[in-house]
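Quick illustration, no need to memorize.
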Amino acid sequence: MQCNNKKMENFESESIQAQSDRKKYLRPGWLEALRLKIARNRVLEIVYRVAVLVVGLAILLAGLAMLILPGPGWAAIVLGLLVLATEFVWAEVLLEPLQRFIQWLARRAKDPRARAQNIVFVALVLVSIALGLWWYLNRYGLTLEPLPFFN
């Protein structure tokens, strides 16, 4: 009996911690009210967490499958981790490197030197595409016959 009481206290403290953590995130008021109502009922809290786990893992596994099969695999993996991170700290930890990378990209996008490098890179790519198109049209004209999959 002592063990069950300790587990319940641990569960309740995790629930309270989760409630305070949720205040950091922006959610619509109705969704936050619903989530807090669910958090007050132990059975609903467990059902909700299991539902989030099932949905998040399904999206994550679909993303892993899409790495081999056609589809946006990495996007689905990140989406699955985002769903899981709404309730599980381990998923947040897995998303931290991605979050740091996105923040680095945002800082780089605001940096004038990096922005100039990006503009030069895009200009070079566009010029390369234009030169390739010009060469193709001069050599073959307006046709797709030289390409192997159009024979």
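Residues 39 and 46 are 9 Å apart (CA to CA).
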